[in-house]
Fold this protein.
Amino acid sequence: YDNGESFDMELSVTNSAGDTSHLKLKARAYENKDNMAQIELTDYLIYIKTGENIEPFEYLKGANLGNSYYPINYTGNGLTIYAGDVSIKNNVDVSVPGTYTITYSLSYNGYSGSIDLIVVVEG
């Protein structure tokens, strides 16, 4: 897989009591290129309760552009990236239990890339 083609994955974990939880999700693979923006989030998988509010911008941390790291913030001053330069596609329905994706995309100074935050809404 390469250049953003998606494929299905299933993650599972078993605790010491033998209980197993499964999470099905889609993943994307990209070729590592010199002009790739690697967006960093504070979390990549979160669980929320039905009806709980979520603010996607709270999970943005920074981005690697080539060999340089830039924090993402709301000022964009100095050696930072303005949060408004990151586009967010949020398909989370907090009223319906399920697994959702918030996709963060950045095109900045010739670099581009995207990353997903997986959101599990629990009933």
Residues 39 and 63 are 4 Å apart (CA to CA).
